[in-house]
């Protein structure tokens, strides 16, 4: 097993050697050189350029990079003596990621390509393959609009045209059932669902559609209260009538109500107890008690605690905080990104589902928890696609979902956060703010609890 930086570098070369007899790459070609000086939309950060490298030269480059204390791949510290489908998948994934790192030696950001991809997806007819997302219209609107607004633009204003904003608002409004009395559906002629209602409300906040939010908020509150269920562990919410309940549905209900300023004592009663009961022996949170910890459910659970509590110690004292932190940190993989569960592959969507937990942890314990530079490299050099959008990992296709959560994860590792004292004993979710403005970032600061730019959190109805 690799025991030093140099051993890690040699291990990396040997790992690559399993696929090719000669490790000799021609990356950093003329096209890369031209791109690095062509336009303001592609910003470069200084990094190693690998060109025409022999094995010995690559060893030297990696050794120099490690000696300089720069970020490099954290290679697996344990090699198992047997192979299984799980270890084979991990080996293949790591090989593909390493090759992609060598093919993309610089951390560039293709802003114009991302804007074009998002705007085209918002206005063009979708391919037939998207019919599986027919129950996810509000989700698609949220993923695309939020992605657009997270990307930092030169003039600081949204580039979404009025026509696109109106198109998005009409789509969301077409999914509202009986002015909110039946919730918001995922598509035409479908039932109201907490998840689609959550995505729809976020989208209306992003388009600053206050009239529609005011019109539906009281009815949505009544509908959500009708979904509340008491269990022996506490209180949760059904996703829809006769549906399931879990930490995800609970988070959706809380976000909707806190943004619409309808989070009454009756609504939140018993909810923290339910959330706490979902923490597992590993330290993360499951969807329901006594099941496996999962990145998405853990995000929903911990973010819910940020909504429900007003002081850091309230959260730290309620859960096994040390175990929780260890589980989250263990999700950062040797490729630089995050996985969602123990012994699972890296996936860029967890750049947010796990990556957003890190600033929340950091503001509670006033420290830095994870390797931001490693995550940033994975997002920009592995998940980013030059023609626009982001993908899960090499070999996967670009999609709306991974594009949004890659950008939100990038934001969480590009910005530092702190808790402010607003003098009103308000929710921690609204007290977490960007520590300072960083001019060299590609993104605006995202509120890690809500997954939208911090500037839009005050556009909700929480003060109305």
What descriptive keywords fit this protein?
two-stranded antiparallel sheet, Glycosyltransferase, 21 helices, PGGT1B-like, 464 residues, mainly alpha, repeat, zinc, 2 domains, metal-binding
Q: Would you mind describing this structure in some detail?
A:
The structure is a single chain. It is built from 21 helices and eight strands. The protein is mostly helical. The protein has two domains: 102 residues, no CATH class; 348 residues, Glycosyltransferase (Alpha/alpha barrel), CATH 1.50.10.20. The strands form four sheets. A two-stranded antiparallel ribbon has the order 1-2. Strand 3 and strand 4 form a beta hairpin. Helix 18 packs antiparallel against helix 19. It is globular. It holds the Pfam family Prenyltrans. Heterodimer of an alpha and a beta subunit. Keywords: Metal-binding, Prenyltransferase, Repeat, Transferase, Zinc. Its EC number is 2.5.1.58.
């Amino acid at each position: 097993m690799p025991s030093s930086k140099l051993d890690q570098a040699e291990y990396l070369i040997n790992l690559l050697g399993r696929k090719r007899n000669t490790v000799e790459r021609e990356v950093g070609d003329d096209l890369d050189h031209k791109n690095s000086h062509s336009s303001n939309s592609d910003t470069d950060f200084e990094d190693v350029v690998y060109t025409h490298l022999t094995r010995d030269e690559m060893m030297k480059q990696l050794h120099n990079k490690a000696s300089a204390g720069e970020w490099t791949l954290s290679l697996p510290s344990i090699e198992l003596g047997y192979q299984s489908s799980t270890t084979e998948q991990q080996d293949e994934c790591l090989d593909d990621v390493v090759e992609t790192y060598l093919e993309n030696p610089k951390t560039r950001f293709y802003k114009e390509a991302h804007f074009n991809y998002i705007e085209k997806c918002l206005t063009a007819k979708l391919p037939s393959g998207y019919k599986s997302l027919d129950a996810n219209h509000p989700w698609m609107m949220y993923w695309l609009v939020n992605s657009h607004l997270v990307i930092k633009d030169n003039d600081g204003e949204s580039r979404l045209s009025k026509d696109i904003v109106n198109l998005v608002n009409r789509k969301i409004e077409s999914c509202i059932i009986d002015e909110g009395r039946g919730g918001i559906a995922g598509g035409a002629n479908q039932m109201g669902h907490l998840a689609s209602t959550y995505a729809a409300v976020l989208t209306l906040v992003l388009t600053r559609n206050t009239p529609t939010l005011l019109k539906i908020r009281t009815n949505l509150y009544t509908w959500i209260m009708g979904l509340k269920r008491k269990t022996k562990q506490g209180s949760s919410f059904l996703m829809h009538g006769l549906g399931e309940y879990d930490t995800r549905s609970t988070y959706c209900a809380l976000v909707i109500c806190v943004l619409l300023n309808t989070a009454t004592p009756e609504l939140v009663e018993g909810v923290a107890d339910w959330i706490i009961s979902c923490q597992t022996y590993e330290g993360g949170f499951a969807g329901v008690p006594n099941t496996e910890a999962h990145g998405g459910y853990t995000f929903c659970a911990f973010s819910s605690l940020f909504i429900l509590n007003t002081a850091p110690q309230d959260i730290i004292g309620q859960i096994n905080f040390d175990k929780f932190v260890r589980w989250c940190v263990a999700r950062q993989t040797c490729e630089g990104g995050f996985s969602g569960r123990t012994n699972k592959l890296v996936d860029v969507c967890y750049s947010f589902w796990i990556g957003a937990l890190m600033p929340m942890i950091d503001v509670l314990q006033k420290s830095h928890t994870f390797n931001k530079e490693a995550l940033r490299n994975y997002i920009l050099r592995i998940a980013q696609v030059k023609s626009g959008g982001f993908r899960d990992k090499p070999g996967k296709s670009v999609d709306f979902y991974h594009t949004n959560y890659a950008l939100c994860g990038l934001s969480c590792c590009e910005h530092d956060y702190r808790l402010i004292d607003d003098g009103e004993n308000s929710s921690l979710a609204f007290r977490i703010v960007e520590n300072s403005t960083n001019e060299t970032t590609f993104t605006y600061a995202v509120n890690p609890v809500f997954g939208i730019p911090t500037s839009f959190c005050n556009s909700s109805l929480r003060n109305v």
